[in-house]
Design goal:
Length: about 450
């Protein structure tokens, strides 16, 4: 094959050509098989080539491949929206479909601003977010995120967003704090910032329920999100939870925040929503937000060409149908517990594995220079990138991250296998990961 004209992510090396997927495996043009332990970017929640999803896509494309939402709604979109509201339980009754998680964040931020405008509260224009977060790579989403290296080249273009400390117990809890005490302190950082800038100027607080790529599968401590919900309510600030990575069943419930007993005003979805079979994301909102628009201007001042794409909606409907019919959320619980057990057995005392964390099948290992002090590796060593390269050479796909501690230092490995992963495949993942870590960081 010729060198090609694709603008690759890295211009220094052209990646191999992927030609086929079979379950948890991706196969390249040379016939090499890679076990996809991270679902690409926590996307492939059913693995590759699921026949029910492929059939649904073909059927929809055969009937109607595209219709602009300025003229029509489609049955696929209506059915998917109904299913998502059912799966999300009470409070989130309206769905806006996008083509990606980044687009979902953009739409959510615009919706939050318009909600306040519809109510005559024009002064609410600020967004508060968290350090070590990631909400997408479009400019609005990038501004709302706390990924230092992603933001840096574009800082002159970004809107001003206030960033507060995340809820990251392993790194930021003080010695002697219980999880609950730390959760109260972490939530207090939000309230302190609201008071500093004037809470009547803040339209929304946005946070990942379980932090994904930037800090590596960091779940909230018990009580943290409940405190955040109460603070937002008391100050009239909307709560936006980003579940693009951790939602759609990835952590064992359709919305991860269900496990924290919290319902946001707005939630964003993507990745596992359509399992990679078609690009699709979603914004779900509370009834009060939809009603403010409906009784005010009557239209969301936002829209894109591929909103509610019929084939994307049909694919996501089939994906979520398979998850429900095969009770795969139960499998996420069981497989997640087994994977934690395997990782703990293999790496629980490894001198360079500081923390094993996550929820369901969104798990991470934080890599450290010294386990007892939690001191990270020198960023110049690019440990996370070396891990990716070594794993790839051994036929394993992992999702590495750098800047875990402060945006510059720190390394982690993210794992997000499909919900229908088998026990044998979990064993294979841990065996190959063990070989990788022992090769890069021998104990």
């Amino acid at each position: 094959m010729s060198a090609g004209h694709v603008f690759c992510r890295s211009t220094s090396a052209r990646p191999p050509i992927a030609v086929r997927g079979e379950g948890i495996f991706v196969i390249d043009a040379e016939g090499r098989r890679f076990i996809d332990a991270c679902g690409g970017a926590a996307v492939s929640c059913l693995g590759h080539g699921h026949p029910a999803v492929l059939a649904a896509m073909a059927e929809q494309a055969g009937r109607l491949e595209y219709a602009h939402t300025g003229f029509f709604m489609t049955e696929a979109a209506e059915r998917l929206a109904s299913l998502l509201t059912e799966l999300s339980h009470d409070g989130l009754e309206r769905v806006w479909f996008t083509s990606s998680g980044s687009e979902a964040t953009e739409a959510a931020l615009k919706l939050a601003r318009q909600y306040h405008l519809e109510r005559g509260d024009e002064g609410r224009r600020r967004i508060v977010a968290r350090r070590l977060s990631y909400h997408g790579n479009t400019l609005g989403a990038l501004a709302a995120g706390g990924s230092v290296w992603r933001r840096k080249p574009y800082e002159p273009l970004l809107i001003d967003v206030t960033l507060v400390d995340p809820c990251f117990e392993y790194r930021f809890a003080e010695r002697g704090d219980s999880a609950e005490e730390y959760g109260r302190k972490a939530a207090a950082a939000l309230e302190n910032e609201l008071l500093r800038v004037g809470s009547d100027t803040v339209m929304a607080f946005i946070a990942e329920t379980v932090v994904g790529a930037t800090a590596g599968a960091v779940p909230p401590v018990p009580g943290y999100l409940s405190h955040v919900r109460e603070i937002c309510d008391r100050h009239g600030v909307l709560l936006i939870l980003d579940e693009v990575m951790c939602g759609s069943g990835r952590t064992g419930t359709f919305l991860s925040c269900e496990q924290d007993g919290v319902i946001p005003d707005i939630v964003t979805l993507g990745k596992g929503l359509g399992a990679g079979y078609q690009p699709i994301g979603a914004v779900m909102c509370a009834t009060k937000i939809h009603e403010a628009v409906a009784t005010g201007s009557g239209a969301l001042q936002h829209g894109q060409t591929y909103n509610a794409h019929p084939v994307g909606c049909a694919a996501a409907l089939a994906v979520q149908g398979v998850i429900q019919e095969q009770r795969l959320l139960d499998r996420v619980h069981d497989a997640g517990a087994r994977l934690v057990s395997l990782l703990t057995s293999r790496f629980g005392n490894h001198p360079h594995v500081g923390d094993i964390r996550g929820r369901g099948l969104l798990l991470a290992l934080e890599l450290v220079s010294d386990r007892s002090t939690k001191v990270p590796f020198d960023p110049k060593l690019s440990v996370h990138q070396r891990m990716k390269e070594e794993a790839f050479a051994g036929g394993l796909l992992i999702y590495p991250g750098g800047g875990t501690v402060d945006g510059r230092a720190g390394d982690h490995i993210l794992l997000a296998p499909p919900y229908n992963v088998t026990d044998d495949e979990l064993d294979m993942i841990v065996d190959l990961l063990g070989e990788t870590i022992d090769s890069v960081l021998p104990s």
